[in-house]
Amino acid sequence: MGSHDGEADELPPPPPVPPDVVPIKAEDVVGELPPNKPVKPKKLPMARPGVGRKGQPIQLYSNHFKVSVKSTEEFFFHYHVNLKYEDDRPVDGKGIGRKVIDKLQQTYHSELSNKDFAYDGEKSLFTVGALPQKNNEFTVVLEEASTGKTAPNGSPGGDDSPGGGDRKRVRRSYQPKTFKVEINFAAEIPMSAIGQVIRGEESENSLEALRVLDIILRQHSAKQGCLIVRQSFFHNNPSNFVDLGDGVMGCRGFHSSFRGTQSGLSLNMDVSTTMIVKPGPVIDFLIDNQKVDHPRKIDWQRAKRALKNLRIKTLHANAEFKIFGLSERNCKEQTFPLKQRNGNDGDCDTVEITVYDYYKKKGIELLYSGDLPCINAGKQKRPTYFPIELCNLIPLQRYTKALSTLQRSSLVEKSRQKPQERMTILNDALQQSDYGSDPMLRSCGISVAPKFAQIEGRILQAPKLKAGNGEDIVARNGRWNFTNKKLIQTCSVDKWAVVNFSARCNVGNLIRDLMRNASAKGIQMTEPFEVFEENPSMRRAAVSRRVDDMFEQIKSKLPGAPKFLLCLLPERKNCEVYGPWKRKCLAEFGIVTQCLAPMRVNDPYLLNLLMKINAKLGGLNSLLQIETSLAIPHVSKVPTIILGMDVSHGHPGQSDRPSIAAVVSSRHWPQISKYRASVHTQSPRLEMMSSLFKPRGTEDDGLIKESLLDFYTSSGKRKPDNIIIFRDGVSESQFTQVINIELDQIIEACKFLDGQWSPKFTVIVAQKNHHTKFFQTGSPDNVPPGTVVDNVVCHPRNFDFYMCAHAGMIGTSRPTHYHVLHDEIGFSADEMQEFVHSLSYVYQRSTTAISVVAPICYAHLAAAQVGTFLKFEEMSDASSSQGGHTSAGSVPVPDLPRLHEKVRSSMFFC
């Protein structure tokens, strides 16, 4: 959780709000309000309408541990911390805050009434009960070696290392470092507010009280020397490391946080993984990182980028520094001015000396780094050089760049654990964390039970499916197959061709096998017009040229535009031809295309390919039985549109890449298996969707209008009376924004189309990145597909539930956490859970139940696929583009090319 510090902290707390009033935040009121007009009260997440009853009971454990809290009249006092050096410069270094505050506590414990602190490492500090004064200023002295910072002259040990300053500075660098610490009262939070969390009456106070408890957990781990990443902590224990190659390691640790649940306060503890830089000699890291076999082959420009800001320990002086960069020249040639005392009168001479000779004089023989650049651990103006072989990377430093596909799959593979193993690991971690010994938790009267929470879940029956010729399909254990069955609505594949971008493959056999499988499934597929082989001379050309050249061939040889193109990619699916090819087909020409990377092509593979092709060309592979018999509560009888909404962001390290917002919407009511998608770019890292409603004069350019109009034309000229919205990827702190900002934009878009029309709305958020897991009692297997939980570990008031619709084959299943924030349609708990379960069975790309409803999966796919249209490397200079969709005060982002109208309403993302 971020800290909410700022000017607001200087003010006294506001008066309490009467219980029946919903306060309005200033930022929610846009523009000036007309006088005497009541402000629309803020919508809050709805209360649970009861619990589900359907399904077969199953006994489960969950990784929630019961916390008992002694009821208390005490208050948490929040103080604002300001750290400065002696000369009033603010302290910017990370990690130094904890050292200073620890020292402060040792030095002044009696002046501070022996209080324990909960410090977040940055600007916030909490105590139980007040400190003697509201405003405090202390001076804290830290010994140089322990700060891990360079001395003020940028040299670690005065004239002891290359690049030291003049004599006056030299003396100063031996002195310990002095800090000024201001601790000023900001607010008080009643500890009784923890009780509100358990009753589900969240308020600023109760969320703040939980935040204090979470900060205590973080501090507890920091004191054990862990790396802390948000609410996760990582010990420096090599048995928790896995090598991912390229100098990067996965590090296993634990997440722990407090949550308010129906059974009271619980500690949610889970296994967590982060990436760290391989500790040890810098040169070993660089050799690994660049996959070379000798230091001579290292690309030093790349090395400089990889090393910047990493921390090292020097072997000869055992001191810690931060890497600024590399020396311009290598160690034997890089000189620096060394001051030497001259005789007895204390005068100094300055001589230029190479780094190599300097260390030689000190009796340190350099074995291999004479011919390599030095590490510069100084500042821009005042470098400090160390030969590379004297530098070791210190452990537990996060690696924050994007992982390669290989590293990512290796991480997933090496960090999975079966349910039993995960339970054992969590049990051990809880014992080892020893929260019972934490003085701060004890003074809050908090103790954590060592047992996993016990829960009764329910297993919902799998929905029945229909295949072609009215045949039934029965799913067993979350999967089904089409053996001896036809697809329910098939397309015909004619006017098509194959393009081969140099894939090594017997294209004739592939076409023959594809046509044989197609006819078995009821798809009419003619012979392709032509197979276009890439001209060998083009293989090394720029990607866009390769794609253009292929299209020139197609234009010159085909009688007209093809309806479908099968595209063979060399090596793997995510090769560089993919994005430009899709863009050309979908945005410029409106041609449906299916790519494949023909490695091991067998019949199951071809069936899967045909399912995608069928869906893209307007067919359907299977339907729900309740869909065909019009038996879905609230949906089958009344025109209903289902929306899936998602915003996808770039990987960490691609901060200027625009985010991509996708809205997927159902069509052909009363079906709920057919969808289309609209995709827009928006400002990087903006989680709220900014393009749902975009009035421009008399037009609305937003994403919602397109969906509504398409529903109207595809559903027999009916307007939807019900609008069901599935929203992915927002955290609990943003729930009120979803129902007050996004929902309002959708309502505006509806009114803009027709002022008289007022459909009913239901809004459901789906979350995958939470830390709640379930384990079967008495079985080592994952929970069976269809498992739903809406008690014990769920919210005390709100309408939420966990569902595992899929069969977890490897590792431990991650349930999806659904929160129904708003429901005007009026689903009962059972109806909502069964509806969500059904929507996990309509995904046209596979014959398995998926872990989150199909409209959300489709929104991910659409965002990812259209995202490949933009070349993100060239993004930074693209901000001058016209008409980018932006949020207030942000840089314009380039618009995505619009899909061609021929494919705009297709399932191109399938």
Describe this structure as you would to a colleague.
There is one protein chain. The chain is an alpha+beta fold and 910 residues long. 24% of the residues lie in helices and 26% in strands. It is built from 20 helices and 41 strands. It has a 16-stranded mixed beta sheet that branches. β18 and β19 (385-386) form a beta hairpin. α4 (193-199) packs across α5 and α12 (507-520) packs across α15. It is globular, with a radius of gyration of 31 Å. Belongs to the argonaute family. Ago subfamily. Residues 564-871 form the Piwi domain. Probably involved in the RNA silencing pathway. May bind to short RNAs such as microRNAs (miRNAs) or short interfering RNAs (siRNAs), and represses the translation of mRNAs which are complementary to them. Residues 281-395 form the PAZ domain. This is Argonaute 4.
